[in-house]
Structures are given as C-alpha cells and as structure tokens.
Amino acid sequence: MEHNLAVGLDIGTTKIVAMIGRKNEYDKVEILGIGKSKSLGVHRGVVNNITQTIQSIQQAVQEAEVSAEMKIEGVTVGIAGQHIRSLQHSDYITRPNSEHVIDEEDIDRLINQVHKLVMLPGEEIIHVLPQEYKVDGQAEIKEPIGMYGGRLEANFHVVVGQVSSIRNIGRCVQSAGLNLEGITLEPLASANAVLSQEEKEAGVALIDIGGGTTDLAIFRDGIIRHTAVIPFGGNVITEDIKEGCSIIEKQAELLKIKFGSAWPGENKDNEIVSIPGLRGREPKEITLKNLSKIIHARVVEIIEQVYVEIKNYGHEEQKKKLIAGIVLTGGGSQLKHLKQLVEYITGMDTRIGYPNEHLAGDSDGDITSPLYATAVGLVLDGLMRQERKKLEQKEAFNIENEEETPSEEVAEKPIKERRSFLDKLTERVKDFLDNAE
C-alpha cells in the first residue's frame, strides 16, 4: 500500500464501512474507494459474535478494494460502544529542580501518573486528555512547556473502556487478514470529520447518532472537554415502530427512512401508508401521524439523555457556554425535523454535520453523507498518524546526523507526545493478540 494512503474501518452496529483515502496536493483528502456491509455480530457498538463480525469486515474491505482497485493491508479502527465512560481528574507532580524549564518529560510523568488510577475490574484507561495546566498555582495555562515552576498540575479528561471489548475488535481485524495500524475513539473521529476549528474554539457539542449508540463529544477553546456514549441509537426507533405497528423490522426501517419524522405536528391526520401483509394477509394501513408519534417519543428520550450529559459538562455556566451549539451527525441525524426538535428541547443552535470539512471539493455526494462521518474521520486519523511517523523518522534521522536545530525540536515535539496514548494502546492490543495466538 502507498505511503500517503490510509484506510478507515468503522465497525458499527448496523453497518461496517471500509474507506480508502489519500491527501491530494492541496492538503485535502480524496476518497478513492468505499465498501460497506451489513454489520452482523455487533450489538450497541460492542462485538458479540466474532465470526460474523470477521465476515462482515472482509465483505466491506473486499468491496472497497474493488472500487479503489488496490489491496488493503492496514486499517485505523474506531472504538465506541456502551462500555465507554469518561471522568474528570486532577493530578500534580513536584519537580525536583525548578531551575530547569518544564519539558516533555515532566508532562509525560504527570500523564503516566494519571494512567495509574485504579479502575473497575476489566476497565482500562484509553485516553488521557490534558485540559489545562497550573504552574505554581498560576491557572489557565494551555502550554506549560518552556516555563519555570516547581509544582505542575493539570485537569484531565480521562476516557475509560473495557479491555476485552477493545481486544475483541483487534482480534476481528487481525483475523480478517488486516494489520491494526491505529485505534481511535469514534466520537473524536467524527468530530475531526465534521467540525470546523472555529466551532471547536467557540464551544460545540457533536452528537453522532448511530444505529446502536449515540456518541457525544464536547469541545471548547479547541480542546475536547467531555465525551459520553449513550446506549441508544436509530435501531431502538426501528424496534419501537416494529412493535407499535406490528410489522417486520425491514418494513419498519423503510418506513422510518422514507416517511419518518421527529415532529408529529407536521403530519395531517389523513396521511396513510399501506404496507403489504405477510403471505397473503391483508395489507396494513398506518397513519403517518402515529408513525411520527412513535418516533418522537423515542427521539425525545435520546436527546434528553444527551442533554443531561451536556449539562453535566457545565454548559449552563457562563464560562463553559457552548456558543456554536450542537452539530448532529451519523445516520440517525437524517431523520426529518430532527434539527427543529433538538433546538426545541435544548434551546441551542443546531446544524446537521456533513463530513466535508477536509474532503476534496469534487467528492462524491454519497461520501459526504452524515452516515460516513466516522469513516471519514478514521481515514483522516490514519493519514495524521502516517505524517507523525514520517516526522519521527525524519527527527531520528536528523539526530543521527546531528543536523537539527534546537528550535525545530521544540516546535515539532508536542505533536508527537500529545497523540501517543492511543498508539500505546494499539501496541498493547497488538502484543496481546500476538502472544495469545
């Protein structure tokens, strides 16, 4: 596989998407191929049938290979699912020598200390995201490297997940004959694909409504502040329609996509859809008003749970206000009148997020659908990872030849260090799988 190519693999509850992309000369991402398959063996974002998941992955990958006319070797995978939770934590270190400026190693030491936090059995820290630092009691420092101080403290956003679920995903990827190049948190991947830098600065909540789960990522001042995974998504809406109208799942899904609306007032009483009966039975007649009442009830429940998380972050405090409001993405965001309902419940500005933030201008309309936000985000993540590797190799080469200037070293290093926790996790999952074989 070429160097400047990356493959994102989005293992969702309803679909698995493999997407191949590369950077063009304008630093935008071109999507070369895409494959998708029905996801069997994943429930609420967690793998519960290894064999079926492997088959679904292979099918999606083959389709992407055919459409791009190339072989896929390594992939960047997203993790989400109901086992992900997050917490806030503060920690500090006392530096042995306050005559020296704070450097990379001090921050690493502080972060490694957070990694030692005691978790519930089977849980592990996936992500440690520094929020802001304090040096000798001086607060609100974004970048402490290069400052003097004896005591360095920081607030962290810590994301925790179940190790077994992450290893299962790694196992599926490897058994499908692919290399695991990277693991990323799905809400972060979707955010990369649909949010602009201005929104992340102003304060924004990204709500990614998938089939099995709804992911939330909150940004403010350009930093991720809060993440949450709510174990409901588009599937429970389909399930409700199926039960409420006594029809089969396939019909319920079609009804939702074609005629569904999150706002019952929009439908007149006399609008009726006729659904063919099973095996010679009479067709069923369903009023669109009833259909949207069923959808409305469940969507309100999902949005209210997300809004509780937004309030937990502290959106109601003046300092933490999310000025850019809410961005909805994922397949579930295509439901008619959903934007209006979200604005009505939360009172926050809302828009639908299309993953075209970093895509080349001539991208196919299908790819820029909210359905593919996570897959596009994973491709972006894979490309970033490759760029970082090149930087590191270049640095290593420079060090060997002793040609580098100190100022360059300081400029490029933070990029490397900030992102390496998930790389460590990827390495650990790989080691575990290699030893377990």
From TrEMBL:
At the top level of its lineage, which domain of life is listed? Bacteria
In terms of SMART domains, this protein maps to: FtsA
Q: Give the bilayer topology.
A: Peripheral membrane protein
Q: Where is the signal peptide?
A: none
Q: Name one Pfam family in it.
A: FtsA
Q: Where is it predominantly found?
A: membrane
**Which key words are in the record?**
Cell cycle, Cell division, Cell membrane, Membrane
| Cell division among keywords | yes
Q: Where in the cell?
A: Cell membrane
Q: Where is the SHS2 domain?
A: 6-194
Q: Does the keyword Cell division apply?
A: yes
What processes does the entry annotate via GO biological process terms? Answer: cell division
Q: Which CDD domains match?
A: ASKHA_NBD_FtsA
The record's note on quaternary structure and interaction partners says: Self-interacts. Interacts with FtsZ.
Name the family. Belongs to the FtsA/MreB family.
**Protein name as it appears in the record:** Cell division protein FtsA
Give the source species. Answer: Flavivirga aquimarina
